[in-house]
């Protein structure tokens, strides 16, 4: 008997029904994006950021808001000209520090909690990228780019090369994510902080070495932290360079003593990722997340506890078959909170050191994406940023004792009240091997079961990235549904949240069971009378784009009538030679193509391009070095030579994603034009 779990999520609607409209890309970009909550030291007030987009200017700006936790209306304490972000309370609660580009480069500023008396504290060439107060307020740390390797002009000082932009390389790590290696590295600095001023004398923790901290491309302030007493800094670093750097994930946590400059590798024995340190308030423990195996970026992210007195390390998640992330201690040090993916959602959990127990705190159908912890002196206060498939991020307060949550901000309430809401359901669908796949099915607004709807199979990227309750400005299920499509989004093999074995099963098997999972999901839903089986399409990005190319070559009985592939791998042999994170390619393909040619031939979509028979839209971006633009160009060329209806959408100024507002509008326009042409 088929299991069916129905969740109808209708947001509170106060406007008359005739005033509502379907969600559109234009409305999507009007939503304020809420993030980065911080609780004041006295537990009475929260600050957070809201990022909004200016479509005409093609840019986004961030404004900091303040909100009393006893109730009231949010109050903006910065404006668009400040373009402030990364706001945090000074440890004494008397000031708020933040980064602002008001003076040109991104610099550190301070203001009173009511937004008055804004003052610039740093004036550093090319600006800074993050900052953090020491708990004793004696120092401030910050990150900035530092030139370590010589420029081409410095390499050839006797030549007149002042206009040359070329570079030479004699080892890998020539580019990462969307940036070529220009000889600069991200370094952590600290300086004396006194009477609201930052001393101009600064100290480079990495001592001009060719290493990055935080780790590129996506590491941030979560990777660097002061010890509880402010005497030392613990930072995340992978002290390798060149080719060694590109084949390894072995980052460590280093303790740097501010008073004498001595350093200690706290996690030297572990060969995989060690990241995101967090100290208990009494300074006795350091929590962090760690992956056991070198070269596997989707390994189980374990929650580790280091006793700083005995140096004993404990994997407190050893019997917890889920990944852990976003750790934060309670102010009394009795509980360590973290976020973990489970069953297509992201939930808040608590670890209790006194009894070594892990318990789930939140259980709704939602994603918690970040949390912050505080206390009013009597109880623990948790604020988390929460999304669902039908609602952008808002802040919620979480009661860890009652295990309940309550919405705190309503940034997008007025916009949402004018938008018709889709509903979604969770289905457990059996795959070809008898295992069940948690599959989200999203329905159009005003869904009528007596009608037949065109239906899309959504293929997730990652490849190890869960199909959860995310709300995106691009792959937005509610927006797809608003265009009149039913969406089938399976958590196929190779996704977290269902145990590490399920997550690992995709390795070396890209075109195997995970593709059978996709077909099982769409075939099961297509049996419903309200699905038009003659109007099925498939869409996806990254590994999802690879999946589209694979399905295009295995489209038996012409099941799918249209495809859209964004930034997907087409020829995994040529991809191996042009991507920029070699540990990722080596692990998932079981080695390079000259050592494992059978796997590359067996699972490369270009080997099956002769079977293509379906219209396909291909999207590729020039600054995408993870899946280089040439992969999409190769696929488009093949489709055109075979006279298959095809279109290439190319962005010269985007990376693996599409981040600029106007580019996003074009993306959505072409996306739905292509779908509608073949499915409506």
Topology (elements, then pairings):
Blueprint lengths: L2 E5 L17 H4 L4 E7 L5 E10 L4 E10 L6 E2 L8 E5 L6 E5 L6 E5 L7 E2 L9 E4 L5 E9 L4 H4 L19 E2 L2 E2 L3 E11 L2 E8 L19 E3 L5 E6 L4 H5 L5 E6 L5 E3 L8 E6 L5 E6 L11 E6 L5 E3 L9 E5 L6 E7 L2 E8 L4 E4 L6 E9 L4 E9 L2 E9 L4 E4 L5 H5 L5 E8 L5 E8 L9 E7 L17 H6 L3 E5 L9 H5 L8 H14 L4 E11 L1 H10 L9 E5 L5 H5 L5 H7 L8 H7 L12 E6 L7 H13 L4 E6 L9 H19 L1
Parallel strand pairs: 34-35, 34-36, 36-37, 37-38, 38-39
Antiparallel strand pairs: 1-32, 2-3, 3-4, 4-5, 6-7, 7-8, 8-9, 10-11, 11-14, 12-13, 14-15, 16-17, 17-18, 18-19, 20-21, 21-22, 22-23, 24-25, 25-26, 26-27, 28-29, 29-30, 30-31, 32-33, 33-35
Question: What does the model show?
Answer:
The protein is α+β, with helices and mostly antiparallel strands and 680 residues long. It has 13 helices and 39 strands. The strands form 9 sheets. Strands 1-32-33-35-34-36-37-38-39 form a 9-stranded mixed β-sheet, with helices on both faces. A hairpin with a 5-residue loop joins strand 20 and strand 21 (285-290). It is globular. Mean pLDDT is 96; it is low at 1-18.
């Amino acid at each position: 008997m088929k299991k069916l779990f129905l969740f109808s999520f209708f947001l509170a609607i106060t406007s008359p029904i005739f005033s509502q409209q379907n969600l559109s890309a234009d409305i999507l970009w009007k939503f304020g994006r809420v993030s980065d909550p911080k609780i004041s030291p006295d537990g009475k007030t929260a600050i957070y950021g809201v990022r909004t987009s200016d479509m005409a200017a093609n840019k986004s700006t961030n404004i900091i808001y303040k909100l009393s936790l006893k109730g009231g209306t949010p109050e903006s304490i910065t404006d668009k000209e400040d373009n402030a972000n990364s706001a945090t309370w000074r440890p004494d609660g008397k000031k708020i520090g933040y980064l602002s580009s008001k003076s040109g480069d991104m610099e550190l500023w301070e203001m009173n909690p009511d937004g008055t008396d804004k003052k610039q504290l740093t004036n550093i060439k090319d600006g800074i990228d993050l900052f953090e107060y020491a708990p004793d307020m004696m120092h401030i740390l910050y990150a900035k780019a530092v030139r370590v390797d010589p420029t081409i002009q410095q390499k050839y000082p006797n030549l007149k090369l002042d206009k040359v932009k070329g570079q030479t390389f004699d080892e890998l790590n020539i580019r990462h994510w969307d940036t070529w290696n220009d000889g600069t590295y991200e370094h952590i600095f600290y300086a004396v902080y006194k009477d609201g001023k930052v001393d101009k004398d600064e100290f480079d923790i990495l001592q001009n070495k060719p290493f990055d901290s935080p780790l590129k491309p996506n590491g941030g302030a979560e990777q660097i932290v002061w010890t509880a007493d402010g005497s030392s800094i613990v930072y995340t670093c992978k002290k390798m360079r060149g080719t060694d750097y590109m084949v390894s994930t072995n980052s460590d946590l280093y303790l740097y003593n501010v008073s004498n400059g001595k350093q200690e590798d706290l996690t030297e024995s572990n060969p995989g990722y060690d990241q995101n340190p967090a100290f208990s308030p009494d300074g006795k423990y350091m929590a962090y997340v760690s992956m056991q195996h070198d070269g596997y970026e989707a390994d189980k992210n374990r929650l580790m506890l280091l006793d700083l007195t005995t140096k004993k390390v404990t994997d407190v998640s050893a019997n917890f078959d889920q990944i852990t992330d976003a750790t934060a201690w309670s102010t009394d040090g009795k509980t360590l909170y973290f976020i973990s993916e489970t069953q297509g959602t992201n939930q808040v959990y608590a670890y209790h050191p006194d009894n070594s127990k892990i318990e789930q705190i939140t259980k709704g159908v939602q994603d918690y994406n970040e949390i912050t912890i505080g206390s009013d002196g009597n109880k623990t206060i948790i604020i988390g940023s929460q999304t669902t498939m039908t609602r952008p991020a808002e802040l919620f307060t979480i009661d860890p004792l009652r295990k309940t949550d309550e919405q705190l901000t309503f940034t997008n309430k007025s916009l949402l009240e004018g938008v018709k809401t889709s509903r979604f359901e969770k289905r457990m669908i059996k795959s070809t091997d008898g295992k069940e796949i948690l599959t989200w099915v999203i329905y159009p607004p005003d869904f009528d079961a007596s009608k037949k709807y065109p239906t899309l199979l959504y293929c997730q990227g990652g490849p190890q990235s869960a199909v959860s309750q995310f709300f995106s400005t691009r792959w937005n299920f509610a927006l797809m549904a608003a265009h009149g499509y039913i969406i089938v989004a399976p958590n196929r093999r190779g996704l977290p949240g269902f145990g590490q074995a399920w997550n690992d099963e995709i390795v070396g098997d890209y075109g195997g069971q995970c593709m059978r999972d996709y077909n099982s999901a769409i075939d099961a839903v297509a049996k419903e009378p309200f699905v038009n089986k003659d109007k099925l399409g498939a869409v996806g990005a990254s590994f999802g784009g690879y999946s589209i190319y694979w399905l295009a070559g295995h489209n038996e009985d012409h099941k799918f009538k249209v495809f859209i592939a964004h930034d997907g791998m087409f020829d995994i042999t040529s991809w191996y030679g042009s991507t920029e994170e070699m540990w990722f390619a080596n692990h998932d393909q079981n080695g390079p193509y000259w050592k494992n040619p059978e796997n590359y031939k067996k699972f490369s979509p270009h080997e099956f391009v002769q079977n293509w028979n379906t219209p396909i839209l291909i999207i590729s971006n020039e600054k995408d070095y993870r899946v280089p633009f040439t992969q999409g160009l190769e696929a488009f060329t093949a489709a055109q030579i075979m006279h298959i209806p095809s279109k290439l959408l190319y962005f010269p100024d985007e990376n693996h994603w599409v981040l600029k507002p106007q580019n996003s509008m074009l993306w959505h326009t072409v996306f739905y034009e292509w779908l509608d042409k073949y499915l409506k």
